[in-house]
Amino acid sequence: MNNRIVSAFIGLVVLLASSGSVFGAGGGTTLQHANVNIRDTAAIQRGAQLFVNYCLSCHSASYMRYNRLAEDLDLDEDLVMDNLVFADVKIGETMDIAMRPEDAESWLGKAPPDLSLISRSRGADWLYTYMLTFYQDEAGGWNNLALPNASMPHVMWQKQGIQKPVYATHDGVETVDHLTLAEPGLQSPEEYEDSIRDLVTFLEYLGEPAKIKRKNIGVWVLLFLALFALIAYALKAEYWRDVH
Q1: DSSP for 15-58?
Q2: If we measure between CA atoms, which residue out of 114, 113, 118, 148 comes closest to residue 133?
Q3: For the chain, percent of residues with pLDDT exceeding 70
Q4: What is the mean pLDDT of the chain?
Q5: Residue 90: strand, helix, or coil
Q6: What pLDDT does residue 29 have?
Q7: Residue 183, phi-psi category: left (phi > 0), alpha (psi -120 to 50), beta (remainder)
Q8: Cα–Cα distance between 49 and 202 in angstroms, integer?
Q9: 87: helix, coil or strand?
């Protein structure tokens, strides 16, 4: 009976995990794997540059300070101020935007969310898929497969180009079957995917800046436990030698 309960529990966990990794929240598209490497400092640096150029004008990252960014990414503070700060702020301030929430609601219809924890709420694969699946609909507006009818425009369309939907009918319902690149952008599809992977890597870092140090400490803890286990086993063998 206990084995059946354990098997059922394991099956439920596997089902939930697989369903969460295949379908995007708010959409039915298959998620693409971002394959981000949080230890790749260069990727995080490139992603930070993309973030401040394409995202920070509307989306804040109020949980991150510029001096913390410089420390974690091995960057000189003057370099951060010259390349990642475009507002009249100091190095110790947070990555906020000048646009007030009430103005954002008036101009855009709703205030763009803070992106400090977006990777923890959505996941890296969802963010990666979201930024790859913008397309121009028949009305000439922007839409998205991962988040249909998203209010956010495709801010990086010049890099990616313009994708158009190819429709298919299933059971009498017309849906988007796939996207095709109608107008190429400044980057090839492979280069654009690499850029989005860098951006998602930065957002993954942004969601938990201590993750890099935590994983490094974890390696040393596991090595210590392995060494202690060997010493404990040798001590146990020495104590029980005379007993047997």
Answers
A1: HHHHHHHHB-TTS-SBPPP----TT-HHHHHHHHHHHHHHTTTT
A2: 148
A3: 88
A4: 86
A5: coil
A6: 82
A7: beta
A8: 9
A9: coil
